[in-house]
Amino acid sequence: xxxxxxxxxxxxxxxxxxxxxxxxxxxxxxxxxxxxxxxxxxxxxxxxxxxxxxxxxxxxxxxxxxxxxxxxxxxxxxxxxxxxxxxxxxxxxxxxxxxxxxxxxxxxxxxxxxxxxxxxxxxxxxxxxxxxxxxxxxxxxxxxxxxxxxxxxxxxxxxxxxxxxxxxxxxxxxxxxxxxxxxxxxxxxxxxxxxxxxxxxxxxxxxxxxxxxxxxxxxxxxxxxxxxxxxxxxxxxxxxxxxxxxxxxxxxxxxxxxxxxxxxxxxxxxxxxxxxxxxxxxxxxxxxxxxxxxxxxxxxxxxxxxxxxxxxxxxxxxxxxxxxxxxxxxxxxxxxxxxxxxxxxxxxxxxxxxxxxxxxxxxxxxxxxxxxxxxxxxxxxxxxxxxxxxxxxxxxxxxxxxxxxxxxxxxxxxxxxxxxxxxxxxxxxxxxxxxxxxxxxxxxxxxxxxxxxxxxxxxxxxxxxxxxxxxxxxxxxxxxxxxxxxxxxxxxxxxxxxxxxxxxxxxxxxxxxxxxxxxxxxxxxxxxxxxxxxxxxxxxxxxxxxxxxxxxxxxxxxxxxxxxxxxxxxxxxxxxxxxxxxxxxxxxxxxxxxxxxxxxxxxxxxxxxxxxxxxxxxxxxxxxxxxxxxxxxxxxxxxxxxxxxxxxxxxxxxxxxxxxxxxxxxxxxxxxxxxxxxxxxxxxxxxxxxxxxxxxxxxxxxxxxxxxxxxxxxxxx
Length: 717
Ligand code: GLC
Known about the structure:
717 residues, Rossmann fold, TIM Barrel
């Protein structure tokens, strides 16, 4: 069917299929609430009938109702399917990165960095399932997610969109999310197609600023940043979105080696590659690797980009037509791109009658009660207990509590970007039935026991003296610190240290001598070293989503025994950015891995002991697996969930090997006194690394497995 279609398509129609524009380009120019954003018929027909555009993305400004989505998407498909010459269905895409972002009332989950803090892969799969149900309720079949970037630069404002600093953790969470989102058929009415982003090496800008250069070797790229994408492509994701920045001076959108030789050649990716927003034209306007807009189009398409997210005009169509006519882009490249796109549309079932239209039967899927339950469970398992002096937590419900700080009384600080609006900062548009941290605490212990004051804004003290007085009159103070919502470059910072105003507020409260509990809501691990020693407890939420306020209150008052662990190192100082999997030469007399809190760390209200770590074979041969087992016991008085983490060290290699690397984890529930044996299988791939020739190899030698404080060695012959 696809080949037959391609043979009938004009060059203009082919180019149209390679073009994606934004919803606002076909909407009425309404400034007001999104609900008033209707389709402008003339604009829509110009896009689809004149320019043959095959894809549209996102929304006209902020959240739509289900009814509004059904109305606008049906009108779009009517023009594409009923009025166009070849009746090719339009493919609509959206950023549903923690639920149906732009749909009013949708279930909005913990952001990736928080979900990864749960170390519970079932939650990732469930979030993918529910996201597919709720976005399909709107009628959209394509999600620009998961982010598979590895978060190795905590300054980066998109750090919270990642599953953390470890390639294995990112790989596992990405694959499980895709499994939930796509199931075995991403064209099914209750499933969606994923989009792997941002391919590849985008998350390590050396300046920390979003969309600034990364400098890495092919070996580092293949060792750290490529594995999550390799696994997700094997898991069957049909689309990939390109790195919006550059590596070693080569913009992602001009990188033939990575887009064609590696992705489509070596990894045999059969789906299609979409550019990131405006990034084809940026090869000229920003990166200056193309001397004209036309040259930029030729460079990107010849590098391996199949669809351009233009998205605010039709320039790409005109320019690519010129490129083909002038021989700058061969017809074979056009046909390859169009074939890839149409094959994905076909596998989505869009060509089947009515399948491209919103399915009214899916409407009841939005915000189902069990989805809210799943969201709360995910949030509860993503709250990390970092400090708990004298077991001050959990608090008694009879405690008189003073709550203050800039993140205590807002919902946007629980959610971050891509929430109702792109930046996530439209607090007034947030649902009225969700609870801030302050509201959740009041709901749990009663208003009478709670006093509150802002204390500080994000960057300026408010009435600190009043806050100090209130703290003196309470049993305990809960000071909520962190970051306001932000997205992409608007979240750039030059200092990882938390704002001085917030540190000052906390320090003044600590001086009262009353217990101070810090709650942190932030997209990245902001340095809080000056106040750590003086606080009695620290609870880190990162961005726990719409149920995050409730989850934090559940942990503070013991209705939930915290089980989350850091998916990243938490720096002690602004330049103390060493990752847990650092190299041996980074540990010496002068310095070592010395974060405020290490990767994989998190406290519980109970305690666990590890014993009897065993490897099945003292010696294994090439290509053989190694079985590892350990016994874990709940030695405390409370039931809890523990994350058993398996690390491996390849003690010597022809390329320097990390002091340890995460190669397995399992989250288990143990009743008080209960023991459980946990076993893992290490495969040759787990023992492999990228060698001197930039290929993945396994070398014989001694290996060490580490779980908890235990370690065992074995020899690979
Ligand atoms: C943005 C982001 C990307 C998103 C795309 C569409 O610039 O980089 O993650 O999917 O545009 O909104």
